[in-house]
Design brief:
- There is one protein chain.
- The protein has 877 residues and is of the alpha/beta class.
- A hairpin with a 5-residue loop joins β7 and β8.
- The longest helix is centred in the C-terminal third of the chain and has 28 residues.
- α18 packs across α23.
- The model has no long low-confidence stretch (mean pLDDT 91).
- Helices cover 44% and strands 17% of the residues.
- 39% of the residues are buried.
- The strands form ten sheets. Strands 7, 8, 9, 10, 11, 12 and 13 form a seven-stranded mixed sheet that branches.
- The protein has five domains: 199 residues, HUPs (Rossmann fold); 171 residues, Isoleucyl-tRNA Synthetase, domain 2 (Alpha-Beta Complex), CATH 3.90.740; 157 residues, Isoleucyl-tRNA Synthetase, Domain 1 (Orthogonal Bundle), CATH 1.10.730.10; 77 residues; 63 residues.
Amino acid sequence: MPIAPRYSAQEIEKKWYDYWMENNYFHSVPNDKEPYTIVIPPPNVTGILHMGHMLNNTIQDVLVRRARLRGYNACWVPGTDHASIATEAKVVAKLKAEGINKADLTRSEFLEHAWAWTEEYGGSILDQLKKLGASCDWERTKFTLDDDMSESVISSFVDLYNKGLIYRGYRMVNWDPEAQTTLSDEEVNHVEQQGQLFFLKYKIEDSDDTLTIATTRPETIFGDTAICINPDDARFSHLKGKKAIVPLVGRAIPIIEDDYVDVEFGTGCLKVTPAHDENDKMLGDKHKLEVIDIFNADASLNENGLHYEGKDRFVVRKEIIKELEEKDILIKTETHLNKVGTSERTGAVIEPRLSDQWFLKMEELVKPAIKAVLETGEIKLFPKKFENTYRHWMENIRDWNISRQLWWGQQIPAYFYGNGKEDFVVAQNSEDALLLAKEKTGNPDLKATDLKQDEDALDTWFSSWLWPMSVFDGIRDPENEEFNYYYPTNDLVTGPDILFFWVARMIIAGYEYTGKRPFENVYLTGLVRDKQRRKMSKSLGNSPDALGLINEYGADGVRVGLLLSASAGNDLMFDEDLCKQGKGFINKIWNAYRLIEGWEIDENIAQPESSRIGLEWFEAKFDATLAEIEDHFEKYRISDALMATYKLVWDDFCSWLLEIVKPDYGAPMDRKTFDGVIKALENNLRILHPFVPFASEEIWQQITSRTPENALIVSSWPEMKKPDTAIIAEFDTASQVISGVRTIRKEKNISFKDQLELFVNNTENFKGRFDTVIKRLGNISTMEETTESIEGALSFRVKANEYFIPLKGAIDVEAEIEKIKEELKYTQGFIKSVEKKLANSRFVDNAPEQVVAMERQKQADAQAKITALETRLNSLK
């Protein structure tokens, strides 16, 4: 059946994705082949496809499809992350819209709503990835809250606790007042903001004296429990041993001494609020100060805030400044630049807060992960520059706060049975917990109802750090066949923004549980930005509709558009024109096949010499490009690999080879040439397939009838061969000669139908293998050597050779003479006006030097042009 005149992306993409799924090409089971494994960075179950997902998953699909073609047993495991904070926030918002308050629900009631929401809205992103062409093993799809996945997480917690690596501590943590949960240090973004420094007057007890402190947070004075001065600061030696009165509160607090205080900052006096600042907490512990918490969970003030109780901290800040000013306590205000911690998830300003949390000791766990990346190179980061970031994080690591004040997630397997903070056991389930509690207490009559499980959930990252192992059940059953076959995985493709959150932690977990790396190579993509270099976001309205782009340009077109500018680790400046360029590339390939498919074959005619040498050249060019592509893949330069493929197909195959071999209009083609072109096309489709899977499969299947076993997706990658570099170099010369001839035709408006003669001087570097190609593509009647310049001929130079095309007989000489005379007359008039200006001494003496120099250059250029025109005119007479 004849090929369609237009490429219909939507129709073709659906057809072949359904075909691939029906034939189970994406599914992998252990066999005797070498495995190639990728685990997807699980997108949030709340997520929808955006440009970052498109880029990341396109790269993964390229790697997986190429591995499949290279004969590996390719397995790409998909899945989603339960995303505790984001998902719980969405469910709470939905309930609120329905008039339901989370606080009025039991945990099980809330989780029913959360699961219902997840089943309705969650996971749609995976279906969207199918439209992109993602060849994931969908039968292996995992969710981080699947029963087996959760069991693995709980097993990990119990194991690490029993090893003494997890502990419970009362610490200063990062509190997100909007999500109402604690965050790890890595989930806090420190943003530089222009704030204010407020200078407040504190009275000294039993005295008329005062001291002044400077603070950025006047609303925290309700939690003040000391004033601290530097013991070496002579300005305040008279205050030693005295007490100050907290403004508005009237509470007397001690004036303590500590060299922690910077005598140069503010006034040299520091208010100490141990409940709401980490450094203040350290001072409080050291000097045994009272701890007064003034905030509720939502960062409104509690009863310790007196008449501000119930009001938001930022509202209080505005109002308390007015009150302090009215009562002559506020002395002055200065602008102040400081860094403010904000939640990576909600954007809320973080509030330091004291609470009981669970922590994982990191000091020893991190050592094998540091060694693997920074010393032995067992795990490689691409690009290498990210090793410095990795080193900084890992060598300055702190204990990981792994508990979250949420219900959506794996509930911490700690069971309390008494009134004290230490009256608990850690177990895989409630049955095991009861046995442990009986043993620990020595009370055989203890009942299940006497135990209460910790209300908190585990940090989502504590779940996903097991991902490469848990998707193959490697935590619960480390000896299972699949885990031992697919693990360690090969490549990980992700963004540098989660290099520590996820990548580093997976490496830590991998070595802790298996003694092996979880993956060999980490390809870190850049962020997708708009043309103004802004990060794409909904709030800026600069993020295009990913599915809309696929509908407009086709999945293959979008994939090409994204990858052309996606070099590893460098941000992609996305422009929709890139997708348009990608669509144009697909159309180019399609039209090339339409041309080939339309040729008539005559079994009885011989192969022209030009076709023979053209096919020989393209084979060499393909071999050279394949070597280049392989080198790019090895170095994870995916964009460069695509660009090399793009140029081979567009320039070398479509623009050169097909021009060389195509028969004259209405004439048939010989069988040998046709078969050679088809072989070249099929090789092109093999290396194109990872990048443009749909169009390549469609053309592959159009060429001839194929069985499912012979589909392109499961065919084979071309074999590497040493390229014939000599023929490539010779064709480079020949192509330049052809371009020179074509340029003269264009400039002189000579029809391609008119044959030209071509003479070449100094031919020592030209062997003539491509003479037939030059003659054919330049429509050259004769091509001869000469030792002299040819009068009346136009010439051009290619390397050491000079080529001449006599124009007599090829052009209308009289018309050309008139044209040259007209141009000569104009140029002579122009040079006279320039010479007149330069003859004017007033102009030369007063005009800026660069202006005069510009006029002299115009004079020289015009004179050179006149000489050339006169020479050309004389050669035609």
